[in-house]
Design brief:
oxidoreductase, Rossmann fold, 12 helices, Short chain dehydrogenase atnD, about 350 residues, SDR_fam, binds NADP nicotinamide-adenine-dinucleotide phosphate, oxidoreductase activity
Length: about 350
Amino acid sequence: MALSVKDFFNTQLFLKIPQPTTSFASKTVIITGANSGLGKEAVKHIVTLGATKVILACRSLSKGNEAKFALQRFLKCSPDALEVWELDLESPASVKEFAARANKLDRLDVLINNAGIQTLNFSVVYGTERAVAVNVIGTFLLACLIVPKLMETSARLGVDTHLTFVGSALFNAAKYPRNHGDDIFTYLSEKKNVDMMNQYNLSKLFQILSVIQLASIVDPLTSTKASASNRLIINTLDPCFCKTGLAREISGVLRPVFTLFEFLFARTAEEGSRLVVQTASAGGETHGGYMRSGELKTYPPLITSEGGVRRRKYIWELLEKTLEVSANTDIPLFSLWSEQLSLGEEHDRFETALPTP
Ligand SMILES: NC(=O)c1ccc[n+]([C@@H]2O[C@H](COP(=O)([O-])OP(=O)(O)OC[C@H]3O[C@@H](n4cnc5c(N)ncnc54)[C@H](OP(=O)(O)O)[C@@H]3O)[C@@H](O)[C@H]2O)c1
């Protein structure tokens, strides 16, 4: 579903967002960017819903610990319920170290890829513009390194596990550059090719395309070890427009305009976090799917058209290469999965069954 003004007003002003109720009892959950905004609020719900352990993955340990103490005071939970682990998505070494540590956990039930940036300042990380680097490359490096642990937990304990990406409906508004040559990530490493007002939206478009492709590779429908109660569910959502620190870099004349817009329309971070938690505990019908306003949505033609499918495969191929080469991942990610987890053939949901919302 594409964005419309009516949909925006409804979601921001009228929609009733229910409290999440699905139990997280005995689960171990990682939330990236959990020291502020939606991530921090999601921690509150997940602990309240019974999780044994929630790991706050933060790029600053001091900010993470500050958030942990505030959460502990609020939740009155056991000190063992929350841990702060360092994670900087801009650093492949940090991501790999984090993933290695996560892979040693007794179990890992949920990874919520929530950390993200929206910036108007151009800089280059992983050989591309920084919003794409953090929201796509760093995020998928982590996700791909952790997929085997989520699948192993699922298979060993016979439970559903979740890999959830906090996306944005703004993917609908992305302008996809024309004539970007063979490598769009490299193309975006040159300032003259980048429109910073478009970069966040473009990064969220790349992200949603990659979620769909990842879900089609790691598909519970074709994994030989999967059954109805034993699967990794990969999904994404739009948490709606919420008042958080995300737009902190907006300055100058745009700042008062944004502040007014936020005052009129933004939901609280707590409300947005309910949608995050709902998606991170949703059923198998959401695998490869996109949730908005608490519902599974059909994808717009931007995604499902012939051009959309072509771009998805192109972005994924490039991402795979970047993860293995530029990010210097010494493990061959995808062959490792297929060997260890006996994955089936790639299963393209647009060529077979799409979820019916
Ligand atoms: N707020 C909205 O209206 C809205 C709408 C749609 C989607 N979203 C998405 O929601 C997610 C959460 O954002 P938010 O609104 O809660 O904003 P936020 O308060 O700014 O939270 C973003 C979190 O990501 C962390 N982060 C940024 N770069 C990182 C890196 N390189 N490595 C590790 N962590 C990093 C931040 O850490 P620091 O505190 O250290 O900077 C912060 O904890 C984002 O993916 C965003 O795109 C938000």
